[in-house]
Description:
By secondary structure, the chain is of the alpha/beta class. The protein has three domains: 63-223, Substrate Binding Domain Of Dnak, Chain:A, Domain 2, CATH 1.20.1270; 235-384, Rossmann fold (3-Layer(aba) Sandwich); 395-616, 3-Layer(aba) Sandwich (Rossmann fold). The protein is 47% helix and 10% strand. The chain has 24 helices and 16 strands. It has a six-stranded parallel sheet with strand order 6-5-4-7-8-9. A six-stranded parallel sheet has the order 13-12-11-14-15-16, sandwiched between helices. The longest helix is centred in the first third of the chain and has 35 residues, at 63-97. It is globular and about 65 Å long. It starts with 16 loop residues before the first helix and ends with a helix. The model is unreliable at 1-10 (pLDDT under 50). Bound molecules: iron/sulfur cluster and Broken Fe4S4 cluster. Residues 37-40, 42-45, 57-59, 61, 66, 187 line the site of iron/sulfur cluster.
Amino acid sequence: xxxxxxxxNSKLDVTLAWERLERQEPQCGFGLLGICCRNCAMGPCRIDxxxxxxxxxxxxxxxDTIAARxxxxxxxxxxxxxxxxxxxxxxxxxxxxKKEAPGYEIKDEYKLVKLALELGLxxxxxxAEELALKVGEWALGEFGRQEGHLFFTRRAPIKRQAIWxxxxxVPRGVxxxxxxxxxxxxxxxxxxxxxxxxxxxRCALGDGWGGSMIATELQDILFGTPQxxxxxxxxxxxxxxxxxxxxxGHEPLLSEMIVLAAEDPDLLAKAKEKGAKGINIGGICCxxxxxxxxxxxxxxxxxxHQELAITTGAVEVMAxxxxxxxxxxxxxxxxxxxxxxxxxxxxxxxxxxxxxFTEETAREKARELVLMAxxxxxxxxxxxxxxxxxxxxxxxxxSHETIAYLLGGMFRSSYRPLNDNIIGGRIRGVAGVVGCNxxxxxxxxxxxxxxxxxxxxxxxxxxxxxSAIACAQAGLMDPVKGLDYCGQGLREVCEAVGIPPVLHLGxxxxxxxxxxxxxxxxxxxxxxxxxxxxxxxxxxxxWMSEKAISIGQYFVASGVFTVFGVTLPVLGARNFSRYLFxxxxxxxxxxxxxxxxxNKMAELMLAHIDQQRKKLGIDRARERILYDMAMxxxx
Length: 635
Ligand code: SF4
Ligand code: MSK
């Protein structure tokens, strides 16, 4: 199912994303370069990138201001999406604590107590529900905080915090930073690209070290901290003889309940009455990652599989929540029996059935949705079915905690073995490869080419989002088969610990796990005293969403060299581009790079990792000592 779809798919009588892209071409060059503005009614204005025509908007804004304002708006939207997700989880935790959300429970009390202790709450003789209420209320307070610093920013290395303080970019409250970002980009407000970018960093940090981190922490408390778990991926996970329900989007709040409902004996009996052997749940995008990480629910695919999954003709219901859901789904579904069901008041689509989900009614709505799928099973049209048996095994569930546990053991869980192997050179460095698909490039190829090149060169890869699903499909998350792609040093470590060379850390909000893991590596010692000292790099080779820009900016503002593929809508602004790709490093220790070609992207990342190794004085330590059995046992 990978690759380019023919431009006219008349047999199916639907248009898919690739065909719609062709119909958009040629796309607007000003938009691609980031130099058009419609922020007021004197516009829209556009800047001539060749320097011959208009160089200023009607208000006098130049290319740098226009591109930086557009960039900051992307960060604000991305940060809002992640953070509103985090807010919904905080509200759910509060309702669970008040027993107003039947069906939910606190699955990881240990993590709840740990977080409560970190927050300075009294934990002794305090019931889990009381603690959950306090933690939930604290989290909501972080969104509306007006002054001071977001609490989780103190998790960063001291040196990083000092940089943020000096540059006055420590986020105050999540919502405040988004509002200020939008204010600054209003016509005639902030018109200095450096100043706009300081707010972009503050807003993005409010996402990574704020909204997203809150989402991850509280989801772990509510649904359990992921542990290594076996799963499957590909269209082969859809079953010919079962009721198939796909959950798609980002929040695990409803999908957790759907997973429970699918195990309900009454509903299973009803499915059998209708001739189905069972009820099968599969996921797409980050909702998929969430329930894979905690339940081993199979992955159907990633962002660009959403329309294709319906064309299998074997999906009874596709339930969507928020973000990355194409408006075309009901149109595609209209050619089949599939029902597209929206579940969030924030994300409605004409032509879809809306089933309003709230925490109070989640359990019954999940049952309703499963029943809808069971009833729809009889409407399948055999002649339109197009299923494959192809599926691939993977191991997911690598939270920051489980990585430390796997490396160090339950009683001395630590990152020491990882640091030692980086210092010793078996592991050359660590890369975070994340983000979406984009139909401007062949589906998944940039993710796979980049990640294969990195692991071949002994770089351990941490993944989230759709990039993780792409690599799982290619077998890179199989602890045995994945080793075939590794360089010898990385292979030895992965074999000894029993992990694949590419670790699935979860959904888009779980990029916060990468920040926490990288900080743990700094705190373990021996690799510098800031995130910007580490031999690490980040990448989003097939990005498309504004959330990716927010993630990229909080990686950069945390000191990480970050490469994006496809394109970046900044290239029409010369000074602003120079700032992002070079000068920003002098302030933040991290910088942006753009490289659409994945092999060259890998070269850039490896060159950066080697440069960091040299600065740390560990560049000569890459002559390797082969592990003997005693050393493997010790690891
Ligand atoms: Fe044009 Fe300035 Fe208005 Fe933007 S804000 S549309 S550049 S006049
Ligand atoms: S789902 S943001 S397409 S990674 Fe998180 Fe995939 Fe990108 Fe959406």
